[in-house]
Amino acid sequence: MMTALLVGIFGVAGALLRFAVDSWFAHRPGPHPHWPWATLTVNLAGSFIIGLSIGLTGRLDLDPDWHAVIATGLAGGLTTFSSWTTATVRLVSEGRYRAAALNVAVNLLAGLAAAALGLALAG
Amino acid sequence: MTRRGLPGWRAWAAVAAGALLGTELRYAAGQLFPEPAGAVPWTTLVINVVGSFALATLTTIWIARPRTAFWLRAGLGPGLLGSFTTFSALVISIDQQFRAGFHAAWLAYLGLSLVLGLGAAAAGWKTGNAIADRRGNAA
């Protein structure tokens, strides 16, 4: 019960952070064509956090409930799959096929690298 | 939107409320349908596919109806669906399954996430456009 509450609170914190990043990128001035930088940023940050959490939980023998709070709550709330897929379809609908393919590949490859980095840093 | 283009307090409150619901739904689904280490994580896959369909549907409806209240869009989009779906769980599952040698599982999970996730978003995109067209004609 306590874990469920903490997962929720950390999920809200992650989502508010994601919304702040979204808003920052949305109002950044510049001639850049729209590309989902905000989603890439939060997905990389969350992948790094979940890797770090798995590593630290194993190394410091932490309560698995803490891993649930950080992984399912914070990292789960911070990252998003639906914006990633929806933004990709949007780019395709605009005929920007290269940007769409890049969005798919970069999130996946850099996300995997970020998770591996988190794991490695946790030792 | 308020001055300097920052979202107003209603939008932040709506995101928080949506995020609480979305996170708890995802957590509860994981408790009800746990994901064994060596198998395709079906619970997360279904969550991500359903969320992709819903967000793409809503996004196209909102493009057609730009006067929809911003706090409502923020609460349902980034709040509820952004928190319900997860990218970090997908990435870490692939990482862990790769390291443990469950190559069939991570390949299937990656492929299904891409095909079904993008397919659901594309289907949602069409559905939302169809709904927006019908409403536009009716109005």
What's this model, at a glance?
Chain A is mostly helical and 123 residues long.
Q: Please, could you describe this protein's structure?
A:
The complex is a heterodimer of chains A (123) and B (139). Chain A contains five helices and no strands. Chain A has 123 residues and is mainly alpha-helical. Chain A has one domain (2-29, 36-122). In chain A, α1 (2-26) packs parallel to α3 (64-78), α2 packs antiparallel against α3 and α2 packs parallel to α5 (97-122). The two termini of chain A are 31 Å apart. Chain B has one domain (6-138). Chain B contains five helices and no strands. Chain B has helices at 9-32, 42-64, 70-84, 88-100, 103-138. The mean pLDDT of chain B is 94. Chains A and B meet through α1, α2, α3, α4 and α5 of A and α1, α2, α3, α4 and α5 of B.
List the quaternary state of the chains. heterodimer
Average pLDDT score of chain A: 95
Low-confidence stretches of chain A: none
Main sheet overview of chain A:
none
Instruction: Compute the number of helices of chain B.
Output: 5
Radius of gyration of chain B: 17 Å
Content of β-strand of chain B: under 5%
Q: Quick one: overall form of chain A?
A: globular
Measured by residues with Cβ under 8 Å of the partner chain's Cβ, the largest interface is: A-B, 52 and 54 residues
Give the strand tally of chain A.
0
N/C terminus separation of chain B: 27 Å
Question: What is the succession of H and E elements of chain B?
Answer: HHHHH
Q: What's the helix-strand series of chain A?
A: HHHHH
By helix and strand content of chain A, what is the structural category?
A: mainly alpha
As residue ranges, the low-confidence spans of chain B are none
Radius of gyration of chain A: 16 Å
Beta percentage of chain A is under 5%
For the residues shown, what is the average pLDDT of chain B? Answer: 94
C-alpha geometry of chain B: globular
Question: What is the topological layout?
Answer:
The complex is a heterodimer of chains A (123) and B (139).
Chain A: H1 2-26, H2 37-59, H3 64-78, H4 82-93, H5 97-122
Chain B: H1 9-32, H2 42-64, H3 70-84, H4 88-100, H5 103-138
Helix pairs in contact in B: 1-3, 2-3, 2-5, 4-5
